[in-house]
Amino acid sequence: SSELTQDPAVSVALGQTVRITCQGDSLRSYYASWYQQKPGQAPVLVIYGKNNRPSGIPDRFSGSSSGNTASLTITGAQAEDEADYYCNSRDSSGNHLGVFGGGTKLTVL
Amino acid sequence: QVQLQESGPGLVKPSETLSLTCTVSGASISSYYWSWIRQPPGKGLEWIGFLYYSGNTNYNPSLKSRVTISVDTSKNQFSLKLSSVTAADTAVYYCARWAVRGVIHYFDYWGQGTLVTVSS
After folding, report:
1. Nearest to B110 among A43, A98, A102 (CB)
2. What is the DSSP letter of A27?
């Protein structure tokens, strides 16, 4: 079982704001990173660190963190944002291991 | 432009060893951490392990007894070996660069992925 917990599915109306969350003890110590994956494609990094976007990622994507919960927010969701989203962090054991959340399927209505 | 490319057999027989290579271009493998990640069909991502160019490695505890990740700095490549495979190891296997800066870490470059099917 994953040490990072995500809701399996979330939906949002076109143009509205959606928050996707990731919970885990390790998030009290380490930042999460977030990945977007569309069918048949490799994951793409969208947010890392406190709230950093790689070049080419629209500014409607933002990240935040509080306690044991990290959040990815899409402000003004677009049809092309429909995808699976995964969070990633270190495990909570301190053994320098990586772990992914189970993923959230985002549907844009 | 950093690019990663996985290569290796797409079909492996049960009980045999899965072997994949990731060729890195646009960056020296002699820096950063490098990882393997897999995704069974229709399922989520699973972190397999990482390697630092010096040879330091760490693996997912659930796979540790069967996994070896190694590096060939002369070829700018790193490799994955997974022994005693079963059908449960059927997955798309990705290699990725793992940027680690204290409490911040992320996979910034990924290969396109390669499907490995375990079947007789």
Report:
1. A43
2. G
Contact A42 B104 (CB under 8 A): no
Partner A contacted by B52 (CB < 8 A): no
Of A106, A99, A100, which is closest to residue A84 (Cα–Cα)? A106
In the sheet with B77-82, reading across from the earlier edge strand, the strands are: B3-7, B18-25, B77-82, B67-72
Taking an 8 Å cut-off on Cβ atoms, the answer to whether B105 and A100 are in contact is: no
10 Å Cβ neighbour count for A41? 12
Chain A's closest residue to B102, CA to CA, is A30
pLDDT digits (tens), chain A, 109 positions = 458 999 999 999 999 999 999 999 999 999 999 999 999 999 999 999 999 999 999 999 999 999 999 999 999 999 999 999 999 998 877 677 889 999 999 999 9
Q: What is the 3-state secondary structure (H, E, C) of B44-73?
A: CCEEEEEEECCCCEEECCCCCCCEEEEEEC
